[in-house]
Amino acid sequence: MSEKLANPGPLGLMGFGMTTILINISNAGFFPIDSMVLAMGIFYGGMAQLVAGLLCYKHNDTFGMTAFCSYGFYWLILVTLIVMPDMGLAASPAGFMGWFFAMWSIFTGLMFIGTLRHPFALQVVFAGAATLFALLSIHNFTGSDTFLKLAGWEGIFCGASAFYFAIAQVLNGEYGRVVMPVGEKTEKSEEKVTNGVVA
Question: What is the pLDDT of residues 32-54, one digit of tens each?
Protein backbone atom coordinates (compact mmCIF):
# COMPACT_ATOMS: atom_id res chain seq x y z
CA MET A 1 0.00 0.00 0.00
CA SER A 2 1.51 3.31 -1.05
CA GLU A 3 1.59 6.19 1.41
CA LYS A 4 -0.14 9.34 0.19
CA LEU A 5 1.43 12.44 1.67
CA ALA A 6 0.14 15.99 1.93
CA ASN A 7 1.94 18.83 0.17
CA PRO A 8 4.03 20.75 2.76
CA GLY A 9 4.74 23.63 0.36
CA PRO A 10 1.75 25.84 1.24
CA LEU A 11 2.60 25.70 4.95
CA GLY A 12 6.17 26.82 4.36
CA LEU A 13 5.20 29.47 1.83
CA MET A 14 2.51 30.88 4.10
CA GLY A 15 4.92 31.00 7.05
CA PHE A 16 7.42 32.86 4.89
CA GLY A 17 4.82 35.07 3.19
CA MET A 18 2.82 36.32 6.16
CA THR A 19 5.88 36.97 8.31
CA THR A 20 7.65 38.76 5.46
CA ILE A 21 4.65 41.01 4.89
CA LEU A 22 4.40 41.96 8.57
CA ILE A 23 8.06 42.78 9.16
CA ASN A 24 8.21 44.78 5.94
CA ILE A 25 5.19 46.84 6.92
CA SER A 26 7.55 47.94 9.68
CA ASN A 27 10.46 48.45 7.27
CA ALA A 28 8.23 50.61 5.07
CA GLY A 29 7.74 52.89 8.06
CA PHE A 30 4.15 52.21 9.10
CA PHE A 31 4.73 50.61 12.53
CA PRO A 32 7.77 49.76 14.66
CA ILE A 33 8.84 46.15 15.09
CA ASP A 34 7.02 44.80 18.15
CA SER A 35 6.29 41.55 19.96
CA MET A 36 3.71 40.47 17.34
CA VAL A 37 6.30 40.55 14.55
CA LEU A 38 8.86 38.75 16.71
CA ALA A 39 6.36 36.07 17.68
CA MET A 40 5.46 35.55 14.02
CA GLY A 41 9.16 35.28 13.25
CA ILE A 42 9.69 32.57 15.86
CA PHE A 43 6.63 30.42 15.34
CA TYR A 44 5.27 30.89 11.81
CA GLY A 45 8.24 32.23 9.91
CA GLY A 46 10.66 30.03 11.84
CA MET A 47 9.14 26.86 13.22
CA ALA A 48 6.42 26.36 10.60
CA GLN A 49 9.00 26.58 7.82
CA LEU A 50 11.25 24.11 9.64
CA VAL A 51 8.33 21.67 9.86
CA ALA A 52 7.62 22.18 6.13
CA GLY A 53 11.28 21.62 5.31
CA LEU A 54 11.40 18.36 7.25
CA LEU A 55 8.23 17.19 5.51
CA CYS A 56 9.89 18.01 2.17
CA TYR A 57 12.65 15.60 3.24
CA LYS A 58 9.98 12.90 3.49
CA HIS A 59 8.94 13.80 -0.07
CA ASN A 60 12.54 13.46 -1.32
CA ASP A 61 12.37 17.17 -2.19
CA THR A 62 15.90 18.51 -1.71
CA PHE A 63 15.02 21.98 -3.00
CA GLY A 64 12.04 22.39 -0.68
CA MET A 65 13.93 21.00 2.32
CA THR A 66 16.89 23.32 1.75
CA ALA A 67 14.72 26.39 1.15
CA PHE A 68 12.22 25.98 3.99
CA CYS A 69 14.75 24.85 6.60
CA SER A 70 17.14 27.66 5.63
CA TYR A 71 14.51 30.40 5.75
CA GLY A 72 13.02 28.92 8.92
CA PHE A 73 16.39 29.26 10.61
CA TYR A 74 16.80 32.71 9.03
CA TRP A 75 13.73 33.95 10.91
CA LEU A 76 14.91 32.42 14.19
CA ILE A 77 18.33 34.02 13.71
CA LEU A 78 16.82 37.41 12.82
CA VAL A 79 14.58 37.45 15.90
CA THR A 80 17.57 36.46 18.04
CA LEU A 81 19.65 39.30 16.55
CA ILE A 82 16.86 41.77 17.35
CA VAL A 83 16.29 40.54 20.91
CA MET A 84 19.88 39.88 22.05
CA PRO A 85 20.90 43.55 22.46
CA ASP A 86 17.99 43.98 24.88
CA MET A 87 19.51 41.14 26.91
CA GLY A 88 22.78 43.03 27.29
CA LEU A 89 24.69 41.44 24.39
CA ALA A 90 26.40 43.69 21.86
CA ALA A 91 24.50 44.36 18.64
CA SER A 92 26.21 43.61 15.35
CA PRO A 93 27.54 46.72 13.56
CA ALA A 94 25.41 47.85 10.62
CA GLY A 95 28.20 47.02 8.18
CA PHE A 96 28.42 43.46 9.45
CA MET A 97 24.63 43.13 9.14
CA GLY A 98 25.10 44.29 5.55
CA TRP A 99 27.22 41.19 4.95
CA PHE A 100 24.59 39.07 6.70
CA PHE A 101 21.88 40.19 4.28
CA ALA A 102 24.29 40.03 1.33
CA MET A 103 24.95 36.33 2.05
CA TRP A 104 21.22 35.65 2.15
CA SER A 105 20.76 37.54 -1.12
CA ILE A 106 23.46 35.43 -2.80
CA PHE A 107 21.98 32.21 -1.41
CA THR A 108 18.49 33.17 -2.58
CA GLY A 109 19.75 34.21 -6.00
CA LEU A 110 21.40 30.82 -6.45
CA MET A 111 18.27 29.05 -5.24
CA PHE A 112 16.33 31.09 -7.82
CA ILE A 113 18.13 29.12 -10.53
CA GLY A 114 16.44 26.01 -9.16
CA THR A 115 13.01 27.64 -9.44
CA LEU A 116 13.34 27.76 -13.22
CA ARG A 117 12.06 24.18 -13.21
CA HIS A 118 9.07 25.17 -11.06
CA PRO A 119 5.95 27.32 -11.61
CA PHE A 120 6.46 30.97 -12.48
CA ALA A 121 4.81 31.97 -9.18
CA LEU A 122 7.71 30.41 -7.26
CA GLN A 123 10.21 32.23 -9.46
CA VAL A 124 8.54 35.51 -8.49
CA VAL A 125 8.84 34.62 -4.78
CA PHE A 126 12.56 33.86 -4.98
CA ALA A 127 13.39 36.80 -7.26
CA GLY A 128 11.54 39.04 -4.82
CA ALA A 129 13.32 37.57 -1.80
CA ALA A 130 16.76 37.94 -3.40
CA THR A 131 15.97 41.59 -4.21
CA LEU A 132 14.67 42.17 -0.67
CA PHE A 133 17.86 40.85 0.92
CA ALA A 134 19.96 42.95 -1.47
CA LEU A 135 18.06 46.12 -0.53
CA LEU A 136 18.43 45.34 3.18
CA SER A 137 22.14 44.77 2.63
CA ILE A 138 22.52 48.13 0.86
CA HIS A 139 20.57 49.84 3.65
CA ASN A 140 22.92 48.44 6.29
CA PHE A 141 26.04 49.31 4.31
CA THR A 142 24.92 52.88 3.55
CA GLY A 143 22.58 53.72 6.41
CA SER A 144 20.09 55.07 3.87
CA ASP A 145 16.50 55.01 5.09
CA THR A 146 15.39 55.24 1.46
CA PHE A 147 16.70 51.74 0.82
CA LEU A 148 14.99 50.49 3.99
CA LYS A 149 11.64 51.86 2.79
CA LEU A 150 12.23 50.41 -0.67
CA ALA A 151 12.97 47.08 0.99
CA GLY A 152 9.75 47.43 2.96
CA TRP A 153 7.55 47.90 -0.10
CA GLU A 154 9.40 45.24 -2.08
CA GLY A 155 9.17 42.87 0.89
CA ILE A 156 5.41 43.35 1.11
CA PHE A 157 5.18 42.37 -2.57
CA CYS A 158 7.49 39.38 -2.03
CA GLY A 159 5.47 38.15 0.95
CA ALA A 160 2.22 38.63 -0.93
CA SER A 161 3.55 36.56 -3.84
CA ALA A 162 4.40 33.71 -1.45
CA PHE A 163 0.94 34.07 0.13
CA TYR A 164 -0.67 33.82 -3.33
CA PHE A 165 1.32 30.74 -4.34
CA ALA A 166 0.48 29.01 -1.05
CA ILE A 167 -3.27 29.61 -1.37
CA ALA A 168 -3.17 28.67 -5.07
CA GLN A 169 -1.67 25.28 -4.24
CA VAL A 170 -4.28 24.63 -1.56
CA LEU A 171 -7.25 25.62 -3.73
CA ASN A 172 -5.96 23.95 -6.90
CA GLY A 173 -5.42 20.77 -4.92
CA GLU A 174 -8.84 20.90 -3.28
CA TYR A 175 -10.75 21.47 -6.52
CA GLY A 176 -8.58 19.26 -8.73
CA ARG A 177 -8.22 22.00 -11.34
CA VAL A 178 -6.62 25.39 -11.84
CA VAL A 179 -8.55 27.83 -9.66
CA MET A 180 -5.64 30.25 -9.25
CA PRO A 181 -3.00 30.12 -12.03
CA VAL A 182 0.62 29.66 -10.94
CA GLY A 183 2.34 29.81 -14.31
CA GLU A 184 2.80 26.11 -15.02
CA LYS A 185 4.00 25.34 -18.54
CA THR A 186 1.27 22.70 -18.90
CA GLU A 187 -1.62 25.07 -18.17
CA LYS A 188 -2.29 25.52 -21.90
CA SER A 189 -2.77 21.78 -22.31
CA GLU A 190 -4.85 19.42 -20.20
CA GLU A 191 -4.18 20.16 -16.53
CA LYS A 192 -3.44 17.52 -13.98
CA VAL A 193 -3.26 18.30 -10.29
CA THR A 194 -0.81 16.24 -8.27
CA ASN A 195 -0.22 16.71 -4.56
CA GLY A 196 -1.65 20.22 -4.57
CA VAL A 197 0.52 21.52 -7.42
CA VAL A 198 -0.50 21.65 -11.07
CA ALA A 199 1.86 19.34 -12.97
Answer: 999 999 999 999 999 999 999 99
